Amino acid sequence: MNSESPFSSAAGAGGDAVVPVSVLNRAIGTMLERTFPLVWVSGEVSNFTRAASGHWYFSIKDAQAQMRCVMFRGRAQYAEFTPREGDKIEVRALVTMYEPRGELQLNVEAVRRTGQGRLYEAFLRLKAQLEAEGLFDAQRKRALPAHPRSIGIVTSLQAAALRDVLTTLARRAPHIPVIVYPAPVQGAGVGAKLAAMVETASRRREVDALIVCRGGGSIEDLWAFNEEVLARAIAASEVPVVSGVGHETDFTIADFAADVRAPTPTGAAELVSPQRVLLLRDLDHRHASLARGFGRMMERRAQQLDWLARRLVSPAERLARQRTHLQQLCARLASAGARPVRDARARFALVQMRWQRWRPDLSQHRATVNGLGERLERALLRQHERHLARVETLAARLEVLSPQRTLERGYAALLDAQSGRAVRAPSALKPGRRVTLHLAEGSADIALSDVQPRLTDGF
After folding, report:
1. Number of C-beta neighbours around residue 280 at 10 A
2. 3-class SS at 278?
3. 368 falls within a domain
4. Which letter does DSSP use for residue 415 in this model?
5. What's 157's DSSP letter?
């Protein structure tokens, strides 16, 4: 202790130290809190009490000793579960003294079930692994059948949960047969046995829904339902599976793998079984609705029958009506056929009248055309006479200028035999050259032998 402790001050006053009880208890509590840090303590729960203030008061004990505990409301409201009598738990607490009564106690800050630390870590690892594989996906989960023909139960024959489930099914749906697939729910190797029963039910396909259940317990008691083999068997089952393990606050890997999780085994039985009373009530309601509908239909049919009976007539009367109707149609057809002809004639008369009014007077135009024709004929005649006179004049001139007339007057034309050109100069006449001589009555080819050119100015 330090020099400030009440024991030091009392000794300094003289004689033996005398301190009040409250001071002593406070000193002991301070010493305990400084000496013992936060520590995990394990034991079995007893005398658990929840006060109206929300504080928890209980004791934890083992075979040799016990210790009183208090967990205040600020800490207790965050606890994951509420301890029950006989639960084995571990508390994280500070050793303190309750000064008014001088009692040693543990001020609890956290509580967990015994072994929960290791098991819970294993639970989280397996949950994360299976979730990553898609074993818990909502898309793969199937809906429960609304009206199952049979229900299967995988649990122990000695389990109280089986009695609860059978009682609930007998109360809600006594008409549905139940098949039990027995398997232990606690102990070594239980997960594989439960998985084998789930696979058997899936293979036989003799039930429409399967319940996997057991009552509540600690995490160790429920650990079989956290095993991987059972989770994979539930996920692979061809039959929809409902998991009803433990209490509402208990969660297992089987709950996540199942198609539906129920908070308790009784809740699982309620989920898979339609309530017989409600089914009978619904059946009565549907029967009454069907009867009312059938009655209304019969009334409508009877009314329709009366209406058809009123429309029913004898064949002779029906033929007379049809004959009258046919005559009316013939009259309408004749009227309809004559109307277009009358309309067409009226339109034609109107068009003819308009055409007569706008028709041209051809006699005046015919006289004008005849006069123009006579004038054209006289003009053509005069033009022909003028052209004829002109032709005669040109013919006379041509006759005067014709080479033939020149030749007939005694002249001759001398052409080169090769080029066909006229020979104009005496110098072009050379011995041996052939020329053509044109006269008035013909021509002759001449070969020159002796040529004496002579230039003259005329004849």
Report:
1. 10
2. helix
3. no
4. E
5. T
Same domain for 233 and 135: yes
Contacts of 44 (CB under 8 A, 6+ apart): 60, 61, 62, 86, 87, 88, 89
Contacts of range 143-148, beta carbons closer than 8 Å, 24 or more positions apart: 143/240, 143/259, 144/209, 144/240, 144/242, 144/259, 144/260, 144/271, 144/272, 145/208, 145/209, 145/240, 146/274, 147/274, 148/176, 148/207, 148/208, 148/209, 148/272, 148/273
Full residue range of the structural domain in which residue 90 is found: 6-116
Q: Which of 108, 96, 97, 133 is nearest to 42 (CA)?
A: 108
Same domain, 267 and 130: yes
Torsion of CA 60, 62, 64, 69, to 10 degrees: -10
Q: What is the mean pLDDT of each run of 10 residues along the chain (459 residues)?
A: 52 65 85 83 90 91 91 88 85 88 89 71 84 88 89 90 91 90 87 92 91 82 87 91 84 89 90 82 87 87 81 79 89 85 88 81 82 91 92 85 76 78 77 80 78 60
Q: How many domains, the chain?
A: 3
The span from the CA of 54 to the CA of 390, in Å, is 153
pTM strictly above 0.70:
no
Distances (CA, A) of 131 to 224, 237, 249, 352: 19, 17, 20, 100
Q: What are phi and psi of 269, to 5 degrees?
A: -65, -35
HEC sequence for 121-150: HHHHHHHHHHHHCCCCCHHHCCCCCCCCCC
Alpha carbon 277 to its chain centroid, in Å, reads 41
SS3 335: helix
8 Å CB contact between 129 and 189? no
